[in-house]
Structure formats: C-alpha cells, structure tokens
Amino acid sequence: MKIKQGVVLGEGGRSLTIEKINAENIYIRMAQGNQLRIIPVIVVGALLKALETGKITLRDIDRKYRKENDLPPLFDFLHIDFDKYILGYDSTIKRICEYELSAVEPAEVSENNRLNLPKPFLLLAGISGTGKSRFIRKQAEFHDPDDPEGNFCLIPVRPDWHEPSDLLGYVSRVDKPKYIATKVLAFIIRAWKSVAPDASAAGAGTLNSASPPYWLCLDEMNLAPVEQYFADYLSVLETRGFNEAGEYCCEPLLDLQALNQSGDLKLQADLGLTEDPLWDYFQQHGIGIPPNLLVAGTVNMDETTHGFSRKVIDRALTLDYGEFYPNDYGQFFEGQPENKVFHWSVLTSARREQLTGTFDTDGKRTVAFLDRVNQVLKRTPFELAYRALNELLLYVACLQPGDEQTLQAVWDDFMMTKVLPRIDGDEDKLRVVIGEDAVNLLDKLTDELKELLPDIWDGQRPDLFRDVKKGIPCRSRKKLEWMKARLESHTFTSYWP
Fold first, then answer.
1. Is 313 exposed, middle or buried (0-12, 13-18, 19+ CB in 10 A)?
2. Which pLDDT score is estimated for 258?
C-alpha cells in the first residue's frame, strides 16, 4: 500500500491521520472527537482490487448511495465476508481508497538530491507555522521503506517530562518486575530490524545500506527540559562508531542484561522479537542507537519553553528553519524549491582519506578556518573543542565540496548550525579582549568571516540544502547582522528566532 503512517487526509475538523499501520490493520485518528477507527487492511485491499478491475466505482463505497439506489450491501455484492460494523466507516474507507488511487509512488532519490547528514540529531528552530514538523514528515515520505508501519514517528513532548523513562520506558515492580515499553522504544527496534538484518549475539553484522532513515520527530521538543528527559540519548550519541572489524557499535540506551535476570520475556514479545536473532544481539550488547535513526526536534522559543544548554547544542545540527527553508509567499501557488533528501551516514570520526575527493583534499584549509574562528572565541563560554573540529571535517566529507565557493558554503553552514547557536548574552558577556582592545565578539567574528569567506561574503553561494539555481546570500553574514541589531535594540541577543 502507498499510504503510510503519519499521512493526513483532509483538512480541519474533518481530517484524519494514519496513526499506525501493520500487516492486519490501519489505525486512523479522527480530528473530530479524537476517535480511533481500525480498518482491516484486507478490506481496503479487496476494494482496491474491485476498483482497479472496474467492478465498482468510488461512489459505490458510499453506504448511503447504495441504500438510496436500492443496491445490495457492498460486501454482499463482492461476495466478501467482513464484519458489518466496517460499513459504518464507509466514508473513511472511501478516502483511503481515493488516496491509494491518486498517490504517486516515491521517486527514486538521485545522488545529486541526497544529503548525508554528518550528525543524526537535528534541531529545527523557527516561529510557529513555518512547517517544521511537516518538513520532517515529508523527509520520511521521500523513502519507501519495506515496513508496513512506516519510517516516521511523531512524539508530542509533554511539559512534565523530566527523565529518560518518559521516552524509553521503565521497570514496573507491580506484581513482578517487568519492563513497560514505549512507542519510541518500539520505533527504535523497527529501525534496528531494517538496518541490521544479520544481527546476532556476535554483533550487528553487515548493515543494510539501503535501509531508509527512520525519523523520530519530537514535536515542541523544548516544552520540557531536554537535558533531563533526553540525557541518555545525548550521552550515548557520542559513543557511536565502528570497531576494528568494521562492525557498528554503540553503548546501550537500554541494558537488557539486568532485565533478563528476571526472565522478562514479555518485553521480547511486546517488541516483536520473538525468535528473532536481533534479540540475541540486544541480550549481549543492549539496545543502542541504530545508525539509521534520525532524531529531529522542533523548537519554538517563547515564555512556555526551555532554552538549550551548550551540551545539547554541541551534539545537534541546529537549523534556523526560516533561513534554511524560507517561506516565500510569492511561491505559494507555484511551489517552493525542491529540498535535498536527508540520509543517514556511516561516518562518525573524521579521517583524512574521507576528504580526498573534496576541494580540501587533506583537510588543512578546514582546520585553519576553524582555528581562526576559535581564536576569536578563546577564553569565552563559546570556545570550541575537538568535537567541533571533527564535525566540521565530517561536514566536508559528507557534502563533498568540489570547488572553492562550495567549500566556503560548507564552512558558512557550519557556522550557522554549530557555532552561532552557541552564542548569546548581553553586551558585557559578548565583550572580548583582543590585544589591548575590548571589542564586541559579534563584530570581531564578522571581520574574521569576511576574510575567511571572500568568495561568498558579498555575493551568492550554492544552497547545499535545496535545489536553488540562482544561489543564496551568505547565511552567517545575515545572521550576524540580525544578532547585532537585536543586541542593539534589546541589549541581549541570541541565535534563536
């Protein structure tokens, strides 16, 4: 079937959302009354077959139409034995069939339109209504996973979340110890099933490079303190890598060895791992972060949300959504430029050989660039360390710039996603001493970047995230000017819109 988890049919109060799909049923959440409807997959399949062969029309699915025209019940007409209550959902079934008949199969993602992410954790920051959650859903829809439940999971963050169990589950001591799994944990298992089909007690085995990204969208991520409920993920994220044998390894988010001592077989069944060798892998190594799991948090900054510590920002790619994917009113009917399709990357630690095909073949120019930037940040709370250098080199390795202008565009985007989000404060906090002079850090950064990005500072640069033929202005220059204007008018500034 073409319909996937997360698809929304209709608008407003009459809309419905495909909440879950498995081999037996389609679970549909109605906007009006929040009612859950369950439609057997076999019902939709039978009706689609009848529609495609011309035996019935879409109008025939309408129970009221058949009754008014003295037509027999639809399933009697098709000689199919289904529970009669399904006919009460005829309008819902009709809309699913309409989608199936009109939906276009996902296009093959070309290498030119694919962007391997140097980091699997994104923060999408922007004002409400710009389309951040929809963007993540569309990214998932670019792929056609061999998974009836789809490769997208939307989790609305609750303001009362304060510990990792809110996401990953917990051990219940009622009656006897048992682990209570969550929707997030089940989604992580599905990602593992897709990417590690050869997993066993010995290790993860050969990864399935054709596995699509599994997108976990944490909607309104900072309604709760991210450093608290997301602490386990933030720590384990930095342990991803490949051992000497080339096998993927990662510290566990959930250590199953302790649970196995209590003989908890219910968790194995709840996660769909009965008689699955993947369970043997988890028993030995715990449940870690699968390499194809991409986590994206949507972020609004207002009086109801929490800010981010540099611990979080350092581990994420922060996209100012309005800058990377601007809402162009003039293109509302014509359509926005095509976005690059994000994909997971096997690169976790930068090595020189990964750069040989780029314009900076040995990485020396990239190292010199970041060193110049870091000289401005020395002895401030915003100073960069080895992690930043590793991730900038991974940026270059993933984006593969082939000329000077594109290399500078990679550096520009790194400033936007990794460096500028760390900077905030008032005039005192942003005052730095260079030699014997006290200067504003934003002014000094502007002067340095003007020298380091000469090919794009005053002109156009390629857009590495969208298919834009005319190019775009230097992103970090525009953001620095905005931050300086905000400091002047509000006596305080930050990256966040």
1. buried
2. 55
Tell me which amino acid residue 454 is: P
pLDDT > 70 in the chain, percent: 93
Secondary structure of residue 370 in the 3-state scheme: helix
Q: Among 42-46, 247-251, 442-446, which is the least confidently predicted range?
A: 42-46
Using alpha carbons, list the distances in angstroms from residue 267 to 179, 236, 282. Answer: 6, 22, 12
Residue 489, both tokens: 């008018």
**Residue 340 DSSP code:** P
Tell if the pTM clears 0.85, that is, is over it. Answer: no
Q: Residue 60: phi, psi to the nearest 5?
A: -65, -20
Give the span between the Cα atoms of 220 and 230, in whole angstroms.
Answer: 13
Strand 16-21 and strand 8-9: the pairing is antiparallel
Pick from 256, 239, 246: nearest CA to 201: 256
Contact 388, 418 (CB under 8 A): yes
CA distance 408 to 476: 11
Q: What is the pLDDT of residues 53-64, one digit of tens each?
A: 888 888 888 777
Q: How far apart are CA 452 and CA 16, in angstroms?
A: 51
